[in-house]
Amino acid sequence: MVDSSFTEFKLDYPEIKNHGCINPLSKSISAEHYSWMIECYYWEDHEDVVLDLSLSLYSQFNRFNGFCEGFLVRSDGAPSSCRLKRSVLEIDEYTTGNYVRWSGDLCVKRNRLESRYVKNGVITLICGVIALPGNSIPVPARNIGDHLGSLLECPDGSDVSFVVGGETFRAHRAVLAARSSVFRAELFGCLAEATMQCITLHEIEPSTFKAMLRFMYTDRLSVDFDPESFSFSPTAQQLRHILAAADRYDIGRLKLMCAQKLWDMVSVETVATTLGYADMHGCPELKSRCLDFFMAGKNFKRIVVTEGYLWLMQRFPSVIDEIKARLETPIYV
Fold first, then answer.
1. Integer-rounded Cα radius of gyration of the chain
2. What does the sequence similarity comment in the record state about its family (predicted)?
3. Does 188 or 42 have the greater pLDDT score?
């Protein structure tokens, strides 16, 4: 089975063009149980822009069979044909036996880079490692989420319960504390909840709390089956409520997952409400994309007649000011 791992680099082009990239950008990834450190350098050679990638494998190993790959992402979101040359990675007999390093350059003309690959001042570069099948012993896929999730179906061992909208949910203090700093402070700190066996929560719906609780055990975002839509997929309104709960309980990964799904579902009808939630619950990436959506084509004229925009004007005047600042001509509301 082929194992691969890729990561995304975002380069501030105006900054590195004017001041250079003094310190390389770096990220860690893993492939076939090995840990890699990827560093990205930027420099210019006459009319060419050079993106230099360096990959270092620091894990103990006997042999790694695979290759590295990197490519730019065009401004329309499609991968470019400008790719690093693939390189087979094997242990170097002259190394200490647990270290190998590979580097490669991606060269592109400056005018081509600026016209095709710079979007909103940012260059996007994808880089990763692909491990080819070898003589390793097959390891089953991770299933800790399934095992922890089964704890929710069985009350045995639970040591705390929550009453939400008349429904009772049993849970385990240690699991909640490991997943949320807010729950850790409430359940193991000096607050009253630390000594309570049953805690009543307000201003959150049972379905929202259930989805959040399920995520903390399984690391998966899911909701109960909806017979009307015949789907387990959350609606935009459900996602907004879960995002608000994730923000309230400091569950960052869940909040970002909701933000991504809300962006995938964005439309003229939903973007204003989603923008308000993004601003209220500290999702700058989602907020920025929603503002860009407002400005695209004729979207603004269609959005201002929606109920969501009226709600946005009433609740978030500062966001309306940001929209006005982005428009070339004033708007009157």
1. 24
2. Belongs to the Tdpoz family.
3. 188
Residue 5 bridge partners (DSSP): 129
Number of other residues whose CB lies within 10 A of the CB of residue 12: 13
* Chain CA centroid to CA 322, Å: 25
The b-or-e profile of 235-256 (16+ CB within 10 A means b, else e) is: ebebbbbbbbbbbbbebeebbe
Q: Could you tell me if 119 and 78 are in contact, meaning their C-beta atoms sit under 8 angstroms apart?
A: no
Reading the block at residue 283, the tokens are: 């999702």
Pairing of strands 118-119, 122-131: antiparallel
Summarised one tens digit per residue, pLDDT across range 224-273 is 766 565 566 788 999 999 999 999 999 999 999 999 999 999 999 999 99
> Residue 21 is encoded by which pair of tokens?
């990239």
Return all residues near 253 (Cβ < 8 A) that are at least 6 apart: 219
Residue labelled with tokens 């950008």: 25
Average pLDDT for the chain: 82
Phi-psi region of 18 (alpha: psi -120 to 50; beta: other; left: phi over 0): alpha
Query: Would you say the pTM of this structure is higher than 0.85?
Result: no
Task: Give whole-number Cα distances, 90 to 36, 55, 64, in Å.
Answer: 14, 13, 5
d(CA 214, CA 219): 8
Q: What secondary structure does DSSP assign to 104-161, as a single string?
A: EEEEEEHHHHHHHTEETTEEEEEEEEEEPP-SPPP-PPP-HHHHHHHHHH--TT--EE
Q: What is the reported pLDDT for 281?
A: 97
Work out whether the CA dihedral 293, 299, 304, 309 comes out positive or negative. negative
How confident is residue 84, by pLDDT bands cut at 50, 70 and 90? low
All residues at 6 or more sequence positions from 218 whose CB lies less than 8 Å from its CB, including other chains? 145, 146, 148, 149
Handedness of CA 317, 322, 327, 329 (dihedral sign): positive
Q: Which domains does the chain have, with CATH numbers?
A: 3-131 (2.60.210.10), 141-233+241-255 (3.30.710.10), 266-333 (1.25.40.420)
For residue 275, how far is the Cα from the chain centroid? 18
